[in-house]
Design brief:
heterodimer; A: alpha/beta; 7-stranded mixed sheet; disordered C terminus; B: mainly alpha; 3 helices
């Protein structure tokens, strides 16, 4: 009974995302255009609307019992100016939850969403960055970070299997190298997995999922080791270095899979 | 006298730049696609290759859109022809 209710709640949540996108494109954006302030204000307001909207959806889904949200160590927004946020990506809802928790964050969006009828207008108005061509993403990302934006990127590039070691694409490394921005790692885990890659919207675990978003100490790249390397090799070195940092963090007692090991470990 | 750029030069350059540990330059065909269905490079590889080529061969690409070069990166042979056309020989 409870489970059926959660699947219904999931249906409502997903529909709300789509309907929200359309309503905002058709009604919200034209209205906001009429307000004074121009392009910058429109961006700010659009991000604010996304933040409030995602927060409402998050609260609704948490209320329905699908998951409990457990943020840990997330800095205040004023401490995220010009920070490159690198988050792990176990489930579909990660971006919804992060944007619900932190306001005025921008992200890199897939070409499919950029050109999507439901969401395209919204992500453009919010001043997000389309993942179309690597050169453009790096330039736009670097400019945004220099302007003081907080930029969210999932370095794995896509949702990945929970429990496996983290492996990253090289895009995050290139952006870190080019922008020289401070990096905030956020380790997102969910136990049991919720809306992981390949899961459909109705595949909701019967138990309430523990959704953990844990920000750890900011990183500075090992610059002295990188200065003499050509760009392509430096990006490889940084990618491996970042993977190591994240995989080390996943052995922290607060991390889900690490906790599993603890639970299942036999006494000698 | 400056040597023409051969597909083999490009293959060596690709293997070195992209640090392809398990590929020997000689194993790549002159007309083998570098991306999908061939060597399997991705868009980040193309980006890195573009930067490295531009630097190494001093390519004259100002004001040209990177995306317009995609077809030159199809095979080692097309890449060699591209670099041959756009390189600037320092005096």
């Amino acid at each position: 009974m409870r489970h059926t209710f959660k699947i219904l709640a999931s249906a409502i949540g997903f529909s709300a995302l789509g309907i929200g996108g359309v309503l905002y494109t058709l009604i919200g954006l034209p209205l906001l255009w009429l307000l004074p302030g121009g392009r910058d204000k429109l961006r700010w307001r659009t991000r604010w609307v996304i933040h409030r909207f995602f927060r409402t959806i998050t609260r609704f889904l948490a209320w329905s019992g699908i998951f409990q949200l457990r943020p840990e160590g997330l800095p205040a927004r004023k401490d995220l100016k010009g920070v490159l946020i690198l988050a792990t990506h176990p489930g579909y809802l990660d971006v919804v939850l992060l944007l619900a928790l932190v306001e005025q964050v921008i992200c890199v969006v897939k070409a499919g969403i950029w050109n999507n009828l439901l969401f395209g207008g919204v992500v453009r108005a919010a001043g997000y960055i389309p993942a179309l061509d690597p050169t453009q993403v790096l330039e736009a990302g670097t400019r945004a970070l220099e302007r003081g934006e907080a930029l969210l990127l999932f370095p794995e590039g896509t949702r990945t299997q929970p429990g496996e070691p983290y492996t990253f694409q090289r895009g995050a490394a290139h952006l870190a190298l080019q922008s020289r921005a401070r990096i905030l790692p956020i380790l997102i885990t969910c136990e049991p997995p919720l809306l992981a890659k390949g899961h459909r919207w109705y595949k909701i675990p019967a138990v309430s999922c523990d959704y953990h978003l844990r920000a750890v100490a900011p990183l500075d790249l090992p610059w002295p080791d990188l200065t003499d390397l050509p760009k392509a090799l430096a990006a490889r070195a940084v990618t491996t270095w970042l993977e190591d940092r994240f995989n080390q963090e996943s052995h922290d007692p607060g991390h889900h899979s690490a906790r599993h090991e603890t639970v299942h470990r036999q006494d000698p | 006298m400056i040597q023409d750029i051969t597909p083999l030069d490009m293959k060596r350059f690709i293997v070195k730049t992209l640090d392809l540990e398990n590929t020997a330059p000689e194993d790549i065909g002159d007309d083998q696609p570098l991306f999908a269905g061939g060597l399997g490079l991705d868009s980040i590889d193309a980006f890195e290759l573009g930067i490295a080529l531009k630097k190494a061969y001093n390519l004259r690409l100002e004001g040209e859109k990177t995306s317009a070069f995609a077809h030159h990166f199809r095979t080692p042979a097309t890449l060699a022809a591209f670099v041959e056309t756009y390189r600037q020989v320092s005096p």
